[in-house]
Design a protein that fits this description.
78 residues, extended, mainly alpha
């Protein structure tokens, strides 16, 4: 199957199938986040740093990822 054929089929996949493809591509790329194509702005970086600092200062207000993920799926679906 050619790249063009693969790309043409992506819109027909289920969300689960697209997530599987995302995971596989991430695995093939070494599971690394790269912002080379879409770097964060200074404002975005500052916001992330502020939220991380708040989380570290107030860990009692945080929840584990598994719980957050379950809540999001319950609210918005998978």
């Amino acid at each position: 199957m050619s790249k063009v054929e693969i790309l043409d089929q992506i819109p027909h996949l289920t969300p689960e199938e697209r997530n599987e493809i995302r995971r596989k591509l991430d695995e093939l790329d070494g599971n690394q986040w790269s912002d080379a194509d879409a770097p964060l702005t200074s404002e975005e970086k500052a916001l992330l740093e502020a939220r991380l600092a708040d989380m570290e200062a107030h860990p009692e207000t945080s929840i584990p990822w598994a719980e957050a993920e379950a809540r999001l799926k319950a609210r918005f679906g998978e």
